[in-house]
Design goal:
Blueprint (H helix, E strand, L loop, with lengths): L1 H6 L1 H11 L8 H8 L4 H9 L2 E5 L11 E8 L6 H15 L5 E3 L18 H10 L4 E12 L7 E11 L4 E11 L6 H17 L2
Parallel strand pairs: 2-3, 2-4
Antiparallel strand pairs: 1-6, 4-5, 5-6
Helix pairs in contact: 3-4, 5-7
Length: about 200
């Protein structure tokens, strides 16, 4: 409705700044505040476009078991994107109730800067996890990790995560998502929110 949007353009622009303080996927306070101004439909479309997440049904995984974080593939042009996602995943697992979690030693990884496709040492990493008597391993691929080119320079992150049963090498859960933020958001904050939205249902079904 162009007329309604024109009448509330200033309010709508203000919502962009105010919403940066909130989680844009679910912003009931913002929606309620601008519903009376007639900007809610346009605002809803804007907020819903910030993230796309698809997950497998949450399995019955044991948070009390030993978990490991294996190397992430970096399919982006951003150096160390995979390692950054690994570090965030490790920290989030702990905050989600996994007390026993270890990360694959950096000195054993064959790639330090960029990886194309799956990590070259995936099999070696899984053997290492078995040596640690781990029950589950978290791994994944980072396919976007950047600030978009343009005036606003919004942060954008895309990841695919998998939980592997270490003993069998079988993938027991997987999820994929992409998320962008406002220009004032830190790239790491956007990544943390995305990875948490993927992992939390799997760790806390």
């Amino acid at each position: 409705m162009p007329v309604v949007f024109s009448q509330n353009a200033a309010a709508f622009d203000g919502a962009r700044s105010f919403a940066s303080l909130l989680d844009r996927e679910e912003s009931p306070a913002v929606m309620a505040a601008f519903a009376a101004l007639g900007a809610a439909p346009a605002l809803a479309a804007l907020l819903s476009a910030c993230a796309v997440v698809d997950r497998a049904p949450a399995p019955k995984l044991e948070a009390g078991a030993r978990w490991v974080v294996l190397p992430f593939a970096n399919a982006t042009e951003t150096p160390f994107a995979g390692q950054r996602a690994e570090a965030i995943s490790e920290g989030l697992l702990r905050t989600l109730g996994v007390a026993d979690v270890q990360r694959y030693p950096a000195q054993l990884a064959s790639d330090n800067l960029f990886e194309n496709g799956a990590p070259k040492d995936a099999d070696k990493a899984l053997d290492w996890a078995r040596g640690q008597n781990a029950r589950y391993a978290v791994t994944g691929t980072v396919d976007e990790w950047r600030y978009k080119v343009g005036v606003d320079g919004e942060p954008a992150v895309g990841v695919a995560l998998s939980v592997v049963e270490v003993s069998s090498g079988r993938v027991v859960w997987s999820g994929v998502g992409a998320k962008s933020g406002w220009s004032r958001d830190a790239l790491s904050a956007v990544a943390q929110k995305l990875i948490k939205s993927l992992l939390e249902p799997a760790v806390r079904p």
